[in-house]
Amino acid sequence: MPTERRNAILSIIDKYGDVSLSFLCDLFPDVSSMTIRRDLIYLEEKGLVIRTQGGVKSVKMLSGGVVSPSYDENEYNFRAQQNVHAKQQIAQKALQFIKKNSSIFFDAGSTMMALAKILPNDYMNVISTGINVSQELVAHSNINVTIPGGTVNRATLSVSGTDALAFIDKVNIECAFISASAFSLDSGFSVSNMYEAELKRKVIAKAKQTIVLLDSSKIGKSLLFTFADLSSVDVLVTDDEPLSPALIQAAKLVGTVII
After folding, report:
1. Is 209 in a helix, a strand, or coil?
2. How many C-beta atoms lie closer than 10 Å to residue 22's C-beta?
3. Which of 123, 103, 231, 128 has its CA nearest to residue 115?
């Protein structure tokens, strides 16, 4: 119901103080971005929030009210709590592509974290741009973990930038596990951060095999920066929600396996 959704949106804004439209759209995948925009207009007209370019601020925060730490610092934790079962399904499916004694790239993200948590303690070399993913894997005595240098994004706990790109140029990657924030047939796989998109493109170009982990709530959406189209991906791993016939057909045409 609109009233329940608006109350939920207001509660999130008041908790974090400052959130982006894309973040709210991710939290409410069953409604369109236009509907979320209308909800924000309604809340602004009621004097409860103030809309900004690409986002919205809490009136409580601006008036000196007490709020939780900033949105950037909490966004990853909030995302990690969404679609947990779907991420676990994806991780279990992706496990079959992990090979002993191989060179593997692990992207950042909560779905990637779900895979890292069930990874066997086999000998392999892992390069990861995910700070928390790397920390999880370091606990495995047989896994050699390398983190590229660069700038850390608080929202995704990922490393990117020119130093990270230069490092990827120097390594060989047999299999890359990549995350995406959105996918559509028109826009391909996309994210909201330009530097992360650039790094993902570089990794895909270097990898012998590319596997994208994507929960179904992100399908049919697009964000600002596309880093790959369907033809650039060898395997798309998603959860058990039904996929559109158009996506299945498109994957067959370009030879991308969907599991």
Report:
1. strand
2. 19
3. 128
- Here the tokens at position 182 are 């959105």
Of the candidates 58, 78, 48, the one whose C-alpha atom is nearest the C-alpha of residue 13 is 58
43, 2 contact by CB (below 8 A) = no
- Which residue carries 């299999």 as its tokens? 175
Sign of CA dihedral 214, 216, 217, 220: positive
Over residues 223-245, the pLDDT tens digits come to 889 999 999 999 999 998 889 99
Residue 188 three-state SS: strand
Q: State the Cα–Cα distance between residues 3 and 5, nearest whole angstrom.
A: 5
- DSSP string spanning 33-99? HHHHHHHHHHHHHTTSEEEETTEEEEHHHHTT---PSPHHHHHHHHHHTSSHHHHHHHHHHHGGG--
46 has a pLDDT exceeding 60: yes
Dihedral pair phi/psi, residue 13, rounded to 5°:
-65, -45
